[in-house]
Amino acid sequence: MTRRNTSQQRAIGGAIEAAGRPLSIQEINQLAAKDVPGIGLRTVYRVVNRLLDDGVIAPVTVPGQPDRYELAEAAARHHHHFHCLGCDRVFDIHSCPGRIDRMVPEGFVLDGHEITLNGLCAQCA
Ligand SMILES: [Zn+2]
Ligand SMILES: [Zn+2]
Prior knowledge:
Blueprint: H1 3-19, H2 25-35, H3 41-53, E1 57-60, E2 68-71, H4 72-75, E3 80-84, E4 90-93, E5 116-119
Helix pairs in contact: 1-2, 1-3, 2-3
The chain binds zinc ion (2 copies).
The site of one zinc ion (ZN) has 8 residues, from loops.
């Protein structure tokens, strides 16, 4: 691995870690560009894919939206997401309604759940 790739990975991993919320490719690009000027979307995509392959980060799926990315370590702790319809940012929600199994139809086997709330964040509301 070249030095350049290492600094790109560090900038991108660092941006995701520092944000404390899932980031889109565009957001990662803006933040990483502070450390690696002119990094560009193509490079961000490539490094993000490598970090996904290496299990460092994990995708966050938001219905009807491009994926966001969070640290795999954060993804491993059960939590949910809030999508702001004003600024398009995604935030973590560290609570769970629980007892989702009561919603499952007779005879179905529940494997897990994902919940995405939407509305306006404190800044946009
Ligand atoms: Zn907002
Ligand atoms: Zn939950």
